[in-house]
Specification:
The chain is α/β, with parallel strands linked by helices. The protein contains 17 helices and 14 strands.
Length: 421
Amino acid sequence: MSQQVDNKTLHVEDIIIASHNIKDVISPTPLQYNHLLSERYDCHVYLKREDMQSVRSFKIRGAYNCIKKLSSEEMENGIICASAGNHAQGVAYSCHLLNIHGKIFMPNTTPKQKVNQVKFWGKEDVEIVLVGDTFDDAYEKAMECSLEENRTFIHPFDDFDVIAGQGTVGVELLNDCPEKIDYLFAAIGGGGLMAGAGTYLRHYSPETQLIGVEPEGAPGMKESIVKGEVTCLGKIDPFVDGAAVKKVGYKTFDICKEIVDDIVVVAEGKVCTTLLSLYNENAIVVEPTGALSIAALDTYAEEIKGKTVVCVVSGGNNDIGRMQEIKERSMIYEGLQHYFIVQFPQRPGALREFLMDVLGPNDDISHFEYTKKNNRETGPALVGIELKDKADYGPLVERIKAKGFLHREVNKDSTLFQMLV
């Protein structure tokens, strides 16, 4: 059951008021028709470019709307928040604009680019505290500090003023889209974006199908809706950091369970493939969460034919240092990158034999680690092989077996994979 602490609920009027509260701080983001995606899915695909906000995500909308509405008493000791990065930037920017001191807790795993952006937007008005490994770790510490220092907590999603601010995305969508919107795809982390924008569309465009999208490693809203109550996930994959929360909001859950038509869960590798495609084909730089909505289109490929589809590109705060990992996750998901532990006979020519007789003409060694064992007949090597076509995988394994190389497929052993790759 919901554990809301007040009787307030979200009204469409709150979203309209929020659009007036934030109009001097944000610029409406473009709603762009995407020819490549439209042709690929045989429909009309529009991208709502929230990655083009000043802080490169929609989070400024909710953060500013919430902080702007605080009383002088609520601002007296400053404010505090917990964030995986994007909410932190919105809060930091709001603190600087409104001359309020803010204390911002983020997990140690937050990409450096996001930490630097928080410093840039908040300047001398914010203090950053890095703690724990996940958003939930940072949230716990921020709540403790909030009580100790009597600071007003600005929740990243489970606050009606924050949700109303995120709902202004929906206001712009209906103002700008030249066609009736048949489907809206939007990422769900804590649920603020879909709860807000979905509420507005459900009221003014009730025929629009609202599709939430979550990463496979953190499907908190889907689990909660299936079980009928807010459910805390035992373990999450923090890779899609902007949507990786163990527990969605109580307020956002109550809203989403009523308005959302479906929730699609997307594998992290698929998110990476989509992210790279957006960059290579459209020159659009997004973070993993920003690619979620587009990554879900394959799941609805048949349903959306001939329809008008809007995907919210929720954020573009990607650290260039993550690109190698993103590429590798994509290739593993696509079946193009494979790792093996191979026992090489400790005799001259064994490696040459592997290269000449096992590798196919389009296969490439992408990783090789080998330690010679003088007291053994064989020595293990971790071998990474990159394929041009995933269909080449079966023949590759057959050639390894035919040549008598003892081996283990690391990709198929999740524990071993996480330890070695």
